[in-house]
Specification:
It contains five helices and two strands; from the N terminus they run H-H-E-E-H-H-H. With 100 residues, the chain is of the alpha+beta class. It has one domain: Factor Xa Inhibitor, CATH 4.10.410.10. GO terms for molecular function: serine-type endopeptidase inhibitor activity.
């Protein structure tokens, strides 16, 4: 009985893991190089243990990413990373200007 009580918190923690923290999203694996809607979001990089910027190319890829760097840091339990002002790629800035 005591073993079950000790194992329960581990089971609960495992259930709470966000799948977006398990594998780094690479835009080339999900998006083609053609024109289309791109959005700058965030992914967790297990190698560097940091949240980094990534491009989304539609609703399917948007669900694989975090909306903000802060959300990524909290969900993936990143230690020691400050929320940074990330420079949006030039192409994305040009697209945003064209939309306005």
């Amino acid at each position: 009985m005591i073993i079950y009580l000790l194992a329960l918190p581990l089971f609960v923690v495992a259930l709470g893991d966000d799948p977006r923290c398990q594998e780094r999203y690479l835009v080339d694996d999900h998006c083609d190089s053609g024109p289309g809607e791109r959005e700058f979001l965030y992914t967790y990089d297990k190698q560097t243990e940091k949240c980094v910027g990534a491009e989304s190319c539609g609703p399917e890829t948007r669900r694989l990413l975090f909306s903000t760097q802060e959300e990524c840091i909290k969900k993936c339990n990143v230690k020691g990373q400050e929320i940074e002002d990330v420079e949006v790629p030039l192409e994305d800035r040009q697209i945003e200007k064209e939309r306005k």
